[in-house]
Design a protein that fits this description.
mainly alpha, two-stranded antiparallel ribbon, 5 helices
Length: 94
């Protein structure tokens, strides 16, 4: 299980990310997705929590809600595009 409190995002500790992911899963909204995007891929910068969210994003991408799936794929792609920058998550490609 991911210890989100040990990870970071654009605004500091990522301990708030599980709540945001649960909210998006139960009641998706553009505002919540924007909040997630801002935290995990702020102006193209990525963080340790960005990579920890990839399995969740992959799960959402496989669901029937096409709009949410496309949003998840876009965010995952942006996170992976930033994998070469310093982010504190080690070698995420492995």
């Amino acid at each position: 299980m991911t210890d989100w409190a040990q990870l970071s995002h654009a605004y500091g500790s990522a301990k708030d990310i599980p709540v945001l992911l649960d909210q998006i899963a139960s009641e998706p909204s553009p505002e919540r997705l924007n909040d997630l995007w801002s935290a995990l891929c702020h102006q193209g910068s990525v963080y340790s929590a960005s990579f920890a969210a990839l399995p969740w994003l992959a799960d959402v991408a496989g669901r029937d809600d096409r709009e949410q799936a496309v949003s998840a794929l876009n965010l995952a792609g942006a996170i992976l595009a930033g994998s070469d920058q310093p982010h504190g998550a080690g070698d995420v490609r492995a």
